[in-house]
Design a protein that fits this description.
The protein is α+β, with helices and mostly antiparallel strands. 37% of the residues lie in helices and 21% in strands. The chain has six helices and seven strands, in the order E-E-E-E-E-H-H-H-E-E-H-H-H. The strands form two sheets. The chain has a five-stranded antiparallel β-sheet. A two-stranded antiparallel ribbon has the order 6-7. Helix 1 (89-106) runs antiparallel to helix 6 (231-238) and helix 3 runs parallel beside helix 5. The longest helix is centred in the middle third of the chain and has 18 residues, at 89-106. It is elongated.
Length: 239
């Protein structure tokens, strides 16, 4: 089946001397992996390497076989030109972290237009607006809603139980729960996102702890998810 769709490039891995494996999330086919032959081969190529940069937003055409194997691209064209993401050191590192998160969560994820639009809009927002060191926290919390992992917002308690996804005064395990301060901050962040309240300022330590807990939460609720390799770098820069 010939498919024409929008997509965002999540990763590009060089294979042999000239070829590449490209992982994407597309509007019409969800998480899709491509084998791009001759991408790094000198000379003129039908698929231009510049169009398949990590985080790039493109329009693509391909024959979709959907048989648990890599697809083959026929055509690719840019859909959005970044203004600052590739040249702003903070934004670039943030985008690397976000792509690692998405690679861990979206594997085998089917097509979801709302999820796709959320991802595209967030990357464009990161590109266009002034850099904010808490951007990744808001991104992660909003992403939970699109992937069915939103905490039970109406639960009450001093502690957020990472395993049960509820606020409670008696967590099953204090090792698998946020402490009282982090739970209060997390509930505030949820309120900011879902009730459109005013944003708060976090200290470096608070930001670091919240991020650590969110990563743990994802590990507990998504068996395919692994802590991003860029987490340590991100932590040293923005935490």
């Amino acid at each position: 089946m010939l498919v024409s769709t929008s997509a965002i490039i999540l990763s590009v891995l060089k294979y042999n001397e000239n070829d590449a494996i490209v992982k994407t999330f597309t509007e019409k086919t969800g998480f899709t992996t491509f084998f791009v032959k001759g991408l790094y081969k000198p000379g003129k190529n039908k698929i231009k390497k510049a169009y398949l940069q990590p985080a790039a937003m493109v329009e693509m055409i391909f024959n979709y076989k959907n048989k648990s194997q890599m697809e083959y691209l026929k055509e690719v064209a840019p859909a959005y030109h970044y203004h600052s993401l590739y040249i702003d050191f903070d934004k670039l590192n943030m985008s690397i972290f976000l792509r690692e998160i998405l690679l861990g969560i979206l594997q085998e994820e089917p097509a979801d237009e709302n999820l796709f639009r959320f991802i595209v809009n967030e990357f464009q927002k990161l590109d266009r607006e002034e850099f904010k060191p808490d951007f990744h926290l808001y991104f992660l919390i909003k992403l939970l809603a699109y992937t069915g992992l939103t905490p039970r917002l109406h639960s009450q308690g001093k502690y957020f139980d990472l395993q049960e996804a509820v606020f409670t005064d008696t967590p099953q395990s204090y090792e698998l729960s946020m402490n009282e301060e982090q739970s209060r901050i997390f509930k505030t962040l949820l309120g900011i996102i879902f009730a459109y309240e005013k944003e708060i300022e976090l200290t470096n330590m608070q930001r670091k702890k919240i991020l650590r807990d969110l990563i743990k939460y994802l590990e507990l609720h998504n068996s395919r998810f692994k802590s991003p390799k860029s987490l340590e770098i991100l932590g040293s820069l923005y935490s």
